[in-house]
Design brief:
Length: about 150
């Protein structure tokens, strides 16, 4: 499925690159839904229900986008956020919360997350998050690469 931004990019003579997404959520149903949306958008998805396994996966590769469930008020996602941003500070990390927690919100943003949103997310909300936080960067990279040719 092409988004409006995809069609605009194609008219301008280049296609948007798709990348790898890391999705971490203890709720397997939400994990499947979110991974499915990202796959339909063209991402290669690495889904995890376990925070430690997701953190270890970051030793092997750097995702282009991260969606991670906050967990409880103890903010179990902290390790994934820290490790993902240590690999690449420009990686957009979105923290998903079943119930909003001001302490977790503040910590996530201080660590470098680009957004903190309440679950569940509808497919169009996920697409909006991706187009807001990732595709503009891809467009900028595509433009600068063409300018150097």
């Amino acid at each position: 499925m092409q988004t409006y931004d995809d069609r605009q990019a194609n008219r301008q003579g280049f296609t948007l690159p798709r990348g790898r997404a890391l999705v971490v959520d203890q709720d397997s149903r939400d994990l499947q839904n979110y991974a499915g949306v990202l796959r339909r958008m063209g991402f290669e998805v690495r889904p995890f229900t376990n925070y430690q396994e997701a953190s270890r996966s970051l030793d092997e590769e750097t995702p282009d986008f991260v969606f991670v469930n906050q967990g409880s008020a103890a903010f179990e996602a902290r390790g994934v956020v820290v490790r993902a941003l240590a690999r690449n500070r420009r990686t957009p990390v979105v923290v998903l919360a079943h119930s909003l927690d001001m302490g977790c919100y503040l910590e996530a943003m201080q660590l470098g997350a680009v957004d903190y949103v309440e679950k569940p997310l509808a497919p169009d909300e996920m697409e909006h998050l991706v187009t807001t936080h990732w595709q503009p960067r891809a467009l900028m990279i595509g433009r600068s690469a063409r300018q150097t040719e």
